[in-house]
Each structure stands twice: as structure tokens, then as C-alpha cells.
Amino acid sequence: MSPRSTAWGAYREIATALRERIAGGEFAPGAALPSEADLCEQYAVARNTLRRALDQLAADGLIVTHPGRGRVVADAQGGAGGSVPQYRAVAAQLRALIDSGDLAPGDPLPSESALAQSHGVSRGTARHALAELEGAGLVEAVHGRGRFVRQRQ
């Protein structure tokens, strides 16, 4: 069964595609995303599936919802709601790698030290990012071996 043949696969695929479009500059900080109806048509999915993808982007701090205005791309400091904590930014980047398949189930994640160095954050911030991914069920820690991408259920 292909990842797209399930709602879970479609939601992840759409979230990854929108992350890439935002990162590529198609949607600049402060720019409104297309309407839900337009995005549903573009990705050929039901509104609930699209909303799951958008909710994930909002949880990652990439988009902000403004009542009456719709969803807009957050600026580098997290948009209108204040700044995105550094650990969330690190977690969002790792989540994008997992969602895109660049980090497959069973693959090891970088160590706290490696993440801290590559993202310019403290080890505590890197640890917090990894804990967020563990809490989301995307990563598991194996004592003495490190953290690994979990198999999707």
C-alpha cells in the first residue's frame, strides 16, 4: 500500500510539499496561503486531510491562522504570535526529514551534540527538540544506542 493510499500518507505528503513550497520561497513570510478549497483541489484531498496537514504546519510554527484573514506564513520570528522556540524549529526540521523519507524508520537521528552544533543551539535545546519528537511518537530512544525513527503504525 503506497503512503498516498491512506489519509495518513496524504496528510504527511501535503505537509511536506507545503513545507518545501514555504522553504523555497513560493510563500513568503506574511503571505497568505491559498484557501482550503484551492489547496484541496490542488492536492485532490478532502478538507479534513488538508486540515491535518495545515495543523501540523501550525504546530511546527511555519504558519499562523488569523481569524477572517486565513492562514499566513510565519516570519522568521514566528509570525504574529511571538517567536517560535528554538527547539520547535529544530524539531520541525527533523520532522520534515522524517516526513519526506530522508530519515526512514530505523534510521538513527543525530546526537544531541551534533544537533546542537549543526543548528547553533545548546544541547538542552537539542534534547528538548528530540523529546518533542519522542512525545509525538516519531522517534524512540534506545538506552546506550541513541534515538531512532520509529516505524509508523
TrEMBL record:
Keywords: DNA-binding, Transcription, Transcription regulation. The keyword DNA-binding applies. InterPro entries: Bact_HTH_transcr_reg, Tscrpt_reg_HTH_GntR, WH-like_DNA-bd_sf, WH_DNA-bd_sf. GO terms for molecular function: DNA binding; DNA-binding transcription factor activity. Residues 8-76, 84-152 form the HTH gntR-type domain. Coiled coil: none annotated. GO terms for biological process: negative regulation of DNA-templated transcription. It holds the Pfam family GntR. SUPFAM superfamilies: Winged helix' DNA-binding domain (SSF46785). It comes from the Bacteria. The keyword Transcription regulation applies. This is Winged helix-turn-helix transcriptional regulator. It comes from Natronosporangium hydrolyticum.
